Amino acid sequence: MKRLFRICLRVSACILLSSTLLNAQNTPAQLDKLFLAVTSDPGYHFNGVVLVADGNKIIYQNATGYADLSDQQKITLQTRFQLASLSKVFTAIAVMQLAEKGRIQLDDPLVKYLPAFPYPDITIRQILSHTSGLPDFNEVYREKSKRALNNSDIIPALIQFGPLVTKPGAEWHYSSMGYALLANLVEKISGQSFPDYLQENICKPAGMLHSYVLSPYIHHPDSLRAINYVSNGPGPLAASDSLRTILESPWQTVFGPGLMVSSGSDILLFSDALFTNKILSATSQEEMYTVVKLPDGNNAKLEHAPIYQAIGWGVDIDHSCGQIVSHDGGSPGMTTILLRNLKSKQTVIVLQNTDNMGILSFGVNAMNILCGKPVRQFGPPH
């Protein structure tokens, strides 16, 4: 997850694609040429679905590859994908909903609500914006756990971990553990399980009928859910299906930072529900999209990416086409990205059941096409 999150959207390091992409007569044609350029490159091994919309109107969608190689089940626009860290935006919105209802305050210390939390100075806002100083999973779990983990393991693990990585509020430091704590917070305040809260307060109001939390502890049969595959460049895919085989990894068993499943059409409903204030008010969303300031006066910025950090979202530094917010996800056998232009209300969605970089080339460039910017290529794909 962290690897993909930190290197996403490195437009400054890109080179121009073929000029044929730039000379397309209309936006759908340009998007189709972009899709063909990405999917025809064996280095990308693109295996997934793309969807581009203007408001709630789909202007381009396409799919390629296999949801399940064992029975040659092809990916379709109805295929459901695991979202990896794209799940974090759902967690952030759940927390913002509780704040909107006055049940929590974002600038309260988390220990006010979770008394066993060992760092009394860390606020909820800092956790939401990755400025808490909390470690990431790989910094705490340096070796594979001897058993399957769950959300109740997070605070004991932090107590054992000791000093923070950075002083709270001082720096940007990505932490999936922080988002696991936010899921615990949602459960504590709402009195519901985290999966049930998301269903009742986000998925159902948005009309997302095919989205849910999937973990080894939640049985959810779904014949349209894609199997995860590891792609190591050109050549055959290798089965990953990490939810079955890596139960000792917190990325596969702890909800909040990941474990959401959804389809392209459901993610569009989610984006539109935000544009139309169905699941969060305009005032709360404005707070979400406000870039976080560090004590030195600088904006919190992602490492190696032209993106500032807001609450649960990254915000493009370049505002020439409007304010573009995004989040991506990456884990064994899955990569995802969602980009939303708050000014034009345009959405780009790319979901894959492989762990390659093809989503960056399509996702970022699709938004570039919508903005009338040059189309560029990320390279190499891995």
CATH class: Alpha Beta
Number of strands: 16
Mean pLDDT: 87
User: What class would the helix/strand composition place it in?
Assistant: alpha+beta
**Oligomeric category:** single chain
Strand content range: 15-25%
Whole-number count of domains:
1
The share of residues in helices is 25-40%
Q: What Rg is obtained from the alpha carbons, in whole angstroms? A: 20 Å
Strand order of the largest sheet: 3-2-15-14-13-12-11
Q: Which runs of at least 5 residues are low in confidence (pLDDT < 50)?
A: 1-24
Q: In the CATH classification, which architecture applies?
A: 3-Layer(aba) Sandwich
What spatial form do the alpha-carbon principal axes imply? Answer: globular
Helices and strands, in order, run as: HEHHEEEEEHHHHHHEEEHEHHEEEEEHE
CATH superfamily: DD-peptidase/beta-lactamase superfamily
CATH-derived topology = Beta-lactamase
Give a quick account of the main beta sheet: strands, pairing sense, barrel closure.
7 strands, antiparallel
Distinct helical segment count? 13
Q: Gap between N and C termini, in Å?
A: 14 Å
